[in-house]
Amino acid sequence: MRRLMSSAAAAVILFAAGGSLAAAPAAKVKPKPAPTAQMGSKGAMFTTVTTQLPRNVRPSHYDLAFTPDADKLTFSAKVKIAIEVIEPTNTVTLQAADLTFAKAEIAGIGAAKIKTDEEAQTAAFTFDKPLPKGKYVLSIDYAGKIYKQAAGLFALDYETETGKKRAIYTQFENSDARRFIPSWDEPFYKATYSVEATIPTGQMALGNMPIASSKDLGGGKTLVKFATSPKMSTYLLFFGLGEFDRASVKAAGADVGVVTKKGDTPKAAFALKSAADILPWYNDYFGTPYPLPVLDNIAAPGRSQFFSAMENWGAIFYFEYALLLDPKISTETDKQNVFTTVAHEMAHQWFGDLVTMAWWDDLWLNEGFASWMEGRATEHFHPEWNAALTAVGGREYAMGLDALQTTHPVVQHVETVEQASQAFDGITYQKGEAVIRMLESYVGHDAWRDGVRAYMKAHNHGNTVSDDLWKAVETAAKKPITAIAHDFTLQPGVPLITVDNATCAAGKTTLTLTQGEFSKDLPDKKPLTWRVPVTVKALGGSEAKTLVTGGKGSVTVDGCGPVVVNAGQSGYFRVLYGPQRFSGIVQNFAKLPAIDQLGVMSDVWSMGLAGYQPPTDFLDLAKATPADTDPQVLSKIAATFGTIDGYYEGMAAERAAFRKLAIAQLKPMLAKVGWTAKAGEPDNVAILRADLIGTLGGLGDAEVVAEATRRFAADKTDPSAIPGPLRKTILGVVAKHADAATWDAIHAQAQAEKTPLIRNQLYTLLAAAEDETLAQKALDLALTPEPGETLSSTMISRVAQNHPDMTFDWAVAHKDAVNDKVDSSSRTRFIPGLGAGSSNPAMADKIKAYAAANLAEGSRKEADKAAASVMNRAKIRQQRLPAITAWVSRAG
Fold it and tell me: Quick count: other Cβ atoms within 10 Å of Cβ 99?
C-alpha cells in the first residue's frame, strides 16, 4: 500500500496527495501472543502467531459467488469455504462486519445457528453436534453493503461529458475483507479463491486473475468467472466493476495492463511502460518470477485519507492522481510519483503478496521493503532523478517522528483493527526503508540481493517474521547483522553520533565518536544504545567505515580536511559536530557531494530546532550553498524557508523581516531557472521551478503573486499563459491569496469541470485560501454533496494547513458529519491530525480531550502524535525563533 504522508512530510519529500460506514471498533477478542523474534518455521507459526480468532479451524479455499447492485449500494452472495478442523468443535468462528446472514450449513452435518458480534467483528456458526477433526465445506448465504468510502466493497461516482457514472472496487487492507466475505481475515490465514460475479452486461469486471468464462444470462446480466487464485491473504483479494478501458503489453511472460475509465488509457501510457520495464527487472532481482498470468494497474477517480494505491495481487488499485498523467495539469513531480508508486506496488507482489508477514507486528516487512525497492528501481531506470537524495528526505520524515516520545519501534505489537491501521506510518515506511538502506550498505549490495533471493525462495506463498529475513541475509553475506537489525527495529529512537575529537597526523584524521540519542522533547533522557554502522570521508580523501558499539567508537580516514560523518547518507542517525569542525564544513560546503550537502543540512536544521546547536547554523549553510548544486538541495532550502515562515504566524514585524531575507535568497534561483521550461533541462529543474514559485508565492513575494495572478487572468484567452506542468503551482499561488471574486471564479471552474483529475484539484484549491472567511466557505462546502464523497476530507485537510485551530474546532463541532466523509481506516487519526499544525499549546489539550472522549484507549496513538507535534511547534516558537529573528536582523 502506498500510504499518504502528512502535508508537512509531503512538502519536504514528494506530494502523494460519502458513506455510512461506522468506525471499525476494537476487537473484543483478546489476541493470542505475538510471534517471538526467533520464531519463523511454518509449522510452529500456526500455534504461536497472533490471532483474534480461535485456532481450532483454518480455511484452505473460498468459492465465492456474488451479485452487486451498485444503484442500491448492496450485494448478495454465497460462499463455500473449504475448512480443516484442527480440534473437535461445534462452533466455527470467523470475521465478519456489516454482513447479514440468511443461512449457513455443512453438508452431512446440517444447518448452523448464527451469532454475530458487532464489536468483535465476528460471526459464530454453531452446529448441533461437534465437528470431528477433518475437512469440511462451510456454505454461507449472506448480504452486505457497498460503501461510499474506500473500505470493503465501495462505490466511486465521477462526472463525464455524458453524465455521472459509478464504478465499484474493493479495498481490504488492513482488516476490511470481512466487510465483503465472511473469512479468516488475518494475514496468516492464506487460502485460494474462486470468484464469480453476476454483473450488468457491457461492464468490465476485474479480479486478481483473468476471467476464465463469461456467460450472457439475459435480462441485461452476465455471469463472469475468474480463474482460481494462488494461495494468498484475504486483504489482497480484489474486485472491480465499471465502464472501463484496458490497454496491455506482454512483459516477462505476463499480460501487463492498465485499466481506466473510458477514454483515459492514453493518460496511463507512462505507467504502463514503467510497469512493463520494471517486471523483468524485479523477476531477476528477487530470483523468483512473478507467478500470476496478469498484472493490471487500475486507476479509479476519487481519494482516500489513508492510501493512494494498494497492492492487490495481480490487480493493483490506484487513485487516478497516483497513476495517470494529464498534460493539462500534471507536473514533473507527478510523473516521478507515478513511477515510484508503480514500483512500490509492484515490489509488493513479492514483499507482501508472495511472502506475507505473519501478523501486523511485522507490517514493515511489506512497506519498508516496498519503499526501499521503489528507490532501487528509480535509481536503475531513472538515474537522472537522483533518487538517493529523495531517500534522505524520507529518512528525515521518519526521524522527525522517531525523535518524539510518542514514537514506537519498527516492529510493534498490534492488537486491534485501529492499531493495525495506525501501524501504517512513517516509522513503518520511511524508517523501515532507511534501516534497510543502512544494512544493505553495511553488507554490500550483492550480498543483500542474494539474501533477499534466498528469503523469497524459502518462504514463497508463506508467512514470515523479521528474523526470517535477517537469517537469510546473514547466511548470504557471511556477516552478522541480526544484532544491528534488532537495535534499529525492536527499539525506537534516533541515535546521535557526536564527533568528540579529531586529530590529524601523517596525513590521516582520527575521529573519536560518541553515541547518544537525538530527542526533540526529551533531550535529557538516558540514551538507548545501538550498534551503529558509520561511514566517514575527509574532503578530497578516501572513505572509511566503523561500527560504533557500546556508545563509543573511533575511525581513521585519509586526509586532513573537514570530515563528513555519515558520508553518502546511508546511516540512520544524526551527526553533531563541534563548532570548529562545523565551521570547516560550512567553509567547504560547496565542495561536498550533493547528497552530503542535503544530509548535513537536514541534520543541522533538525538539531537546531531541538536545541543541540544554534538553529541559525542552517541559515549559514543556506548562504554557503552554491547556486549550481543539485536542485533537490535548493528545494530543501526553499521548503525550510517556508517552514520558518509558518512559525512566524501572528508575528507581523518579525515575519516581514524574515520574508525579505528569504525572498532575497530565493529570487535569484527563480531568475536562473525562469518561469518557462528550457529544452533539454533536467527533470529536477522543473520540480525546483515549481517549488520556488510556490514558496515565493507563499512568502508573499509581490512579483511572483502578480505574475501568477496575471497568468490566471490571461488563461481564459491565452492557452500558453499557464503551461500544464505549472498549472497546479500557479493556481496554488492564486488560490492562497484569493479574494472573494477569485474564489468564486475557481469555484465556477470546478463546477464546470468534467475531468475528475482536474476537478478534484480545483476543489482542493478552494480550500487553500489564507483568508479566514473563504476558508470557512470551503469547510462548509466540503460537507455538501457537491465536491464528491471522497474529496471532502481532502478539502478539510487542506484548510487545516493554513488554519489548524479553526479547522479542528469546526471538525469537532461537526464530528459525525466529518467522520461520514472519512474512510474507516483513518477515523482515529483524521480529526486529531487537523490540529497537528497548530503552535498553540491549548490545541494539544483539545486533541487529548477529543481522543479521551471519542477514541478507545488503545487507539489514541495518532492523537498523541498530533498533540506532541503541537507542543514541539510551540517550543520552537518560544525557544528557537528568537535566535533566527536576531540572525535575520544582523543579516539585514
Answer: 22
Dump pLDDT digits (tens) for 530-559: 999 999 999 888 899 999 999 999 999 998
**Rg of the chain over all Cα atoms, to the nearest angstrom:** 27
Measured between alpha carbons, how far is residue 316 from residues 270, 296, 335, 696, 801 in Å? 16, 6, 18, 38, 31
User: For 725-769, what is each residue's pLDDT tens digit?
Assistant: 999 999 999 999 999 999 999 999 999 999 999 999 999 999 999
CA distances (Å), 52 to each of 55, 133, 136, 572, in order? 9, 21, 22, 35
3-state secondary structure of 489: helix
The structure's pTM equals 0.94
Question: What's the Cα-to-Cα distance from 299 to each of 237, 260, 273, 324, rounded to whole Å?
Answer: 17, 5, 15, 7
Among 173, 196, 320, 345, the one annotated catalytic = 345
Q: What is the number of other CB atoms lying within 10 angstroms of the CB of residue 890?
A: 8
> Any idea what the Cα angle at residue 170 is, between residues 28 and 362, rounded to 5°?
55
What local confidence, expressed as pLDDT, does residue 824 receive? Answer: 83
DSSP code, position 803: -
- Whether 698 contacts 645, CB under 8 Å: yes
Q: What pLDDT is recorded for position 8?
A: 35
Give me the pLDDT at residue 27, please. Answer: 40
Q: What is the chain's length?
A: 892
Quick check: is 418 catalytic? no
Q: What is the pLDDT of residue 47?
A: 66
Query: What burial class does residue 886 get, using C-beta atoms within 10 Å of its C-beta: 0-12 exposed, 13-18 middle, 19+ buried?
Result: exposed
Reading across the β-sheet that carries 239-242, which strands appear in turn? 152-160, 163-171, 239-242, 204-207
> What Cα–Cα distance (Å) separates residue 817 from each residue in 155, 642, 768, 793?
19, 33, 21, 11
Residue ranges of the chain with pLDDT lower than 50? 6-42
Instruction: Please classify residue 455 by burial: count the beta carbons closer than 10 Å to its beta carbon, then call 0-12 exposed, 13-18 middle and 19+ buried.
Output: buried
Strands (E), 467-507: 494-505
What residues have CB less than 8 Å from 763, skipping those under 6 apart? 750, 781, 787, 788, 791, 794, 795
Residue where the block lists cell 468464462: 213
Angle at 61 between CA 142 and CA 466, to 5 degrees: 115
Locate cell 487529548: which residue? Answer: 848
The Cα 249–Cα 276 span in angstroms is: 7
| Residues with Cβ within 8 Å of residue 849, at least 6 apart in sequence | none
Q: What is the CA 742 to chain-centroid distance, rounded?
A: 33
Residue 788 CA to residue 760 CA, distance in Å, equals 9
Nearest C-alpha neighbor of 209 from the set 292, 309, 312: 292
To which H or E segment does residue 469 belong? helix 466-477
Q: What is the CB neighbour count within 10 angstroms for residue 577?
A: 25
- Angle of the 594-610 helix axis to the 387-402 helix axis, nearest 10: 20
Q: What is the pLDDT of residue 19?
A: 30
pLDDT score for 523 = 82
Residue at 611: amino acid letter: G
